[in-house]
Amino acid sequence: PQGSEEAKAFVNAFLKRSMPKKKDEAIQDILTRKAVVLEHYSKKKAKQKRKKTKGFTAKQRREMRLFEIEPEQQRYTIFLPLHELWKQYIRDLCHGLKPDAQPHMVQSKLLKADLHGAIVTVTKSKCPSYVGITGIILQEFKHVFKIITKEDKLKVVPKLNNVFSLEIDGFISYIYGSKFQLRASERSAKKFKLKGTIDL
Predict the structure, then answer these.
(1) pLDDT tens-digit profile of 51-106?
(2) Which terminal residue of the chain has fewer beta carbons within 10 Å of its beta carbon, N or C?
């Protein structure tokens, strides 16, 4: 136990350290009120800048051939299980595709759905050589579909100026490629207009 003088000296020294900006008279004045608010000066921590993880550039992806399908993998039968998975995905998305389902509801779901694995047919085109091409969509880019046909040929079909038909469980939907020029990831967030000018 300390004596009263030692305790007083300790308190004064403690307050002086805790409130370095105040003079002795001001500290004594505060003490008479029997309520002391101690000042605390924390050192500001330097904010660490987060490093953003940079992905590959388009040039690097081309050089690494990330999106190229090897010739030995370009076989229609290899991708039939992918088509079966896609059909199940669409059935789940559209709650079973029942006969009483409203066509515009199915259409709106298909517009935002992932089309990798879907079987599509080019029904109309400004370029006659594209009409009739049927196959499984292997890759979808902003401007083109990569389709594998039953003849094991990989076709790159532009979306622009082409109309594609898509059939599942009796529902036939038409995709106007000119209005569909988006990446798959962007398409899922886009609001499509129900009415508008339809052209090739």
Answers:
(1) 666 778 878 877 887 778 888 888 999 999 999 999 999 888 887 777 677 777 77
(2) N
Q: Rounded to an integer, what distance in angstroms lies between the CA atom of residue 183 and that of residue 180? A: 9
Q: What is the chain's Cα-based Rg? A: 35
Tell me the CA distances in angstroms from 120 to 50, 94, 101, 116, 165, one per residue in order: 44, 18, 21, 10, 6
Residues 67, 59 contacting (CB under 8 angstroms) = no
Reduce the DSSP state of residue 121 to 3 states and report it. Answer: strand
- State the helix-helix crossing angle for 103-112 and 80-93, rounded to 10 degrees: 130
**Considering the domain boundaries, does residue 104 fall inside one?**
yes
DSSP E strands, 78-161 = 119-125, 134-140, 144-149, 154-158
Range of the domain at 178: 71-189
The CATH number of whichever domain residue 151 belongs to comes to 2.30.30.210
> Residue type at 50?
R
pTM metric for this prediction: 0.65
Indicate the pLDDT class of residue 43, thresholds 50, 70 and 90. Answer: low
Distances (CA, A) of 47 to 3, 8, 44, 50: 47, 41, 9, 9
Bridge partner list, 124: 163
